[in-house]
């Protein structure tokens, strides 16, 4: 049921002996156009994740404009952030059918449309639809391709590449906070959202930069990676497990399906050639039939790949560590999102607005977050360091900061805790690497889609829950305490499952010895 990393070669029907030969990889892998992919992903994180981290500015404007409760108003921001991540598995279907480039361009148009339509909002419920749903779906259609493309183009320095690209979240949070503050002050929040929508059209340019690799380049990358990973003992023992799909993705059924599709298209072409003497209307109909047939083949292949990855005989959910990873994701992301949405209100309650205007606490998180992603990415790329252990240590630091944040009543104390939150949250750059270690590169798009979907559920309910607790207690303390405890539960799941995975083979070997 499970396949080792070396088995990736067999998934593509290659001879395993080929892996022992000296293979010259595509120069664009780990270099060349790969750095343009990093730049594209970096800009995507600035425009999407960075702007979402700055929504606390707009949240205060919406509270004053519509005079609704904090719990209800927080749903606007949480819907946008949550839907961006929740649609991940369904965006995997779009990627399978259309590719990353087309998916990202369409998403950029939707995101910009959501921002522009939100400028004409008459109530909070209108924002739910325009900003929460429309802009959220558009953001998700750009965000997942940006992450997946970096994983496809890099082999040796994946963690560093993901760290550099995702630092756009920190840069974006810092830049967008200042930009939205300026735009809201000078032009009002409605014009600010309209201008931000125009800026978001640059996501289409980022999508155009996502040039896909050919299947040959991907096969060479997998074979080179399998050779390099035989000489490294970096990853944890459980991270060498990958899922091996069968059924519709098997070699024989795929060949049969391709033969049938070629036969259908060939018959259409034969009719088209034989009917040259017919009227132009008939030829036009045949061309439409040929186009529809090709589109049907593409949709069937994409859906088969997507369906098998989630619901096939060897589903991703048979990997226990991956399931524990999903449970962790359900609780983790809200702990990071809640401070960005509610810190401006907390600062106002503590009468620290003057210091916060000089240097906002959310900007401190954003700036240190940049260094955290790069430094943690460099550390995890060291041969003697386990990416899994770096990931766990960063999580422990972050949950400690979330639990201690309500105890800080001064600007300096809050600034120190926010700096630690920013640095430890740099583990986000390691999430694609950890996910790929668990399920393999072949299933990265769908598996990471599931993980960010779980993060999206966490982001969807986190800020409204914190606002609801405030409406009841008139304090944010219990919001952070409960979020921190739930986060700790998720970390415990990550610690338990690897121990079970290691213990089971030992018990099995003991039973065999007794027999």
UniProtKB/TrEMBL annotation:
PANTHER family: MONOCARBOXYLATE TRANSPORTER, MONOCARBOXYLATE TRANSPORTER 14. It is a multi-pass membrane protein. The chain crosses the membrane at residues 33-55, 75-95, 102-120, 126-148, 160-180, 192-213, 321-341, 361-379, 386-405, 411-434, 446-466, 478-496. It comes from the Eukaryota. This is MOT14 protein. Keywords: Membrane, Transmembrane, Transmembrane helix. It is found in: Membrane. Residues 37-502 form the Major facilitator superfamily (MFS) profile domain. Residues 224-256 are annotated as: Disordered. SUPFAM superfamilies: MFS general substrate transporter. One of its GO terms (molecular function) is monocarboxylic acid transmembrane transporter activity. GO terms for cellular component: membrane.
């Amino acid at each position: 049921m499970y396949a080792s990393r070396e088995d990736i070669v067999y998934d593509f029907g290659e001879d395993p002996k080929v892996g022992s030969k000296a293979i010259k990889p595509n120069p664009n892998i780990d270099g060349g156009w790969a750095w343009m992919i990093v730049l594209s992903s970096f800009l995507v994180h600035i425009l999407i994740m960075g702007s979402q981290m700055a929504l606390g500015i707009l949240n205060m404007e919406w509270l004053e404009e519509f005079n609704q409760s904090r719990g209800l108003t927080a749903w606007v921001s949480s819907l946008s952030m949550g839907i961006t991540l929740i649609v991940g598995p369904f965006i995997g279907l779009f990627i399978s059918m259309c590719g990353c480039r087309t998916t990202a361009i369409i998403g950029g148009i939707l995101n910009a449309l959501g921002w522009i339509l939100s400028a004409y909002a008459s109530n909070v419920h209108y924002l739910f639809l325009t900003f929460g749903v429309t802009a959220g779906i558009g953001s998700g259609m750009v965000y997942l391709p940006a992450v997946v493309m970096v994983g496809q183009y890099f082999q040796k320095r994946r963690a560093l590449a993901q760290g550099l690209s995702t630092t756009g979240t920190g840069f974006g949070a810092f830049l967008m906070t200042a930009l939205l503050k300026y735009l809201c002050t000078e032009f009002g929040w409605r014009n600010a959202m309209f201008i931000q929508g125009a800026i978001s059209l640059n996501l289409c340019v980022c999508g155009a930069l996502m040039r896909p690799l050919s299947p040959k380049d991907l096969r060479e990358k997998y074979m080179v990676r399998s050779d390099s990973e035989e000489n490294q003992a970096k990853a944890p023992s459980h991270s060498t497990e990958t899922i091996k799909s069968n059924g519709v993705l098997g070699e024989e059924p795929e060949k049969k399906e391709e033969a049938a599709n070629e036969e259908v298209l060939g018959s259409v072409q034969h009719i088209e050639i034989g009917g040259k003497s017919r009227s132009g209307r008939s030829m036009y109909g045949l061309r439409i039939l040929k186009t529809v047939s090709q589109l049907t083949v593409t949709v069937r292949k994409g859906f088969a790949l997507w369906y098998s990855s989630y619901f096939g005989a060897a589903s991703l959910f048979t990997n226990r560590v991956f399931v524990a990873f999903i449970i962790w994701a359900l609780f983790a992301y809200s702990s990071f999102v809640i401070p960005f949405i509610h810190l401006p209100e907390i600062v106002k309650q503590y009468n620290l607005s003057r210091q916060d205007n000089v240097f906002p606490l959310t900007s401190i998180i954003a700036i240190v977050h940049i260094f955290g992603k790069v430094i943690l990415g460099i550390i995890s790329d060291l041969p003697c360091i386990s990416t899994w252990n770096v990931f766990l240590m960063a999580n422990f630091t972050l949950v400690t900061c979330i639990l201690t944040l309500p105890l800080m009543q001064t600007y300096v104390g809050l600034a120190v805790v926010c700096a630690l939150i920013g640095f430890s949250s740099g583990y986000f750059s390691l999430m694609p690497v950890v996910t790929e270690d668990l399920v393999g590169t072949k299933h990265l798009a769908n598996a990471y889609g599931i993980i960010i979907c779980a993060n999206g559920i966490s982001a969807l309910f986190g800020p409204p829950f914190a606002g609801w607790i405030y409406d009841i207690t008139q304090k944010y303390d219990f919001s952070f305490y409960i979020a921190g405890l739930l986060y700790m539960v998720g970390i415990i799941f990550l610690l338990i499952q690897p121990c079970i995975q290691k213990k089971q083979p030992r018990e099995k070997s003991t039973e065999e010895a007794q027999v």
